Amino acid sequence: MIFNIVEANQKNERPLIFNWISFSFFAAVHILALLAPWFFSWSALGVALFLHWLFGSIGICLGYHRILTHRSLHVPKKLEYAIALVGALALQGGPIFWVAGHRRHHTYTEDIDKDPYSAKRGFWWSHMGWLFYKRPEFFEYESNRKFAPDLAKDAFYRSLDRYYLLLQIPLGVGLYLMGGWSFVIYGLFLRAVLLWHSTWLINSASHITGYRSHESDDNSRNLWWAAILTYGEGWHNNHHAYPNVAKAGWKWWEIDMTWWVIVSLRQIGLARRIVLPPTT
To answer: Are 77 and 272 in contact (CB under 8 A)?
Structure first.
């Protein structure tokens, strides 16, 4: 596997060490997802699509990203915890890990050493390669808590960050009881792989191609098809220009499904202090 990191790594003081445990985990989930054609049913496909939306839009986009990372809006604490729990089920890491990594990304956007998924290291590095190397500054709790101190002081988030992986057990058992192995293959493994790559496209493709609505000190782009796959996150140039704004799609045709959820929460009184785009 080559991730175009040799030239970028020449300035590093420490060589990058491949993490075979991490690679094996992701490879195993991908392999199990390939069993999907032999376990196909329309109901299983429906479960995969529903959980892709639930874990992706509600858990990751709304919870991990817009609420926890950027505090673009505020919801009641119990609802915040529930949404974060949904995010942990997405199998993209615990909240402290995820939030710290994304805050680093905004603080040091595209810096080869300080941005965990810097696009300057190449497409495959920013897409998924960064997950396969031992970099304690990005993966160890003591380092991450410095970038997410608001979460690290909360016992619930510390526990969720430590045990998020175990949540896949009750999820898998529940899926099996509802629909057998087809629901497990589609709802757990295939869904995880599809959601991984959807999310990762924001780190990779949205820093390479698309259009720019704002001048920003990076190569972030608005990419319509990535926005569809990620429920609005693909309007990435808008987001990098104004990270704390809760609305990712600014123009009427920039579809942002997660924003629709925020509007619904506001209408029933569960969302407040929503950060809106600046008026011109």
So the answer is: no
- Please give the single-letter amino acid code of residue 96: I
This model's pTM is above 0.90: yes
Contact 58, 200 (CB under 8 A): no
Could you tell me the two tokens for 265?
Answer: 């929460």
Q: How far apart are CA 185 and CA 181, in angstroms?
A: 6
Per residue in 219-242, is it b (16+ CB within 10 Å) or e — as a string? Answer: bbbbbeebbebbbbbbbbbbbbbb
pLDDT in tens, the chain (280 residues): 333 444 444 454 568 899 999 999 999 999 999 999 999 999 999 999 999 999 999 999 999 999 999 999 999 999 999 999 999 999 999 999 999 999 999 999 999 999 999 999 999 999 999 999 999 999 999 999 999 999 999 999 999 999 999 999 999 999 999 999 999 999 999 999 999 999 999 999 999 999 999 988 889 999 999 999 999 999 999 999 999 999 999 999 999 999 999 999 999 999 999 999 997 5
Contact 192, 219 (CB under 8 A): no
CA distance 220 to 19: 28
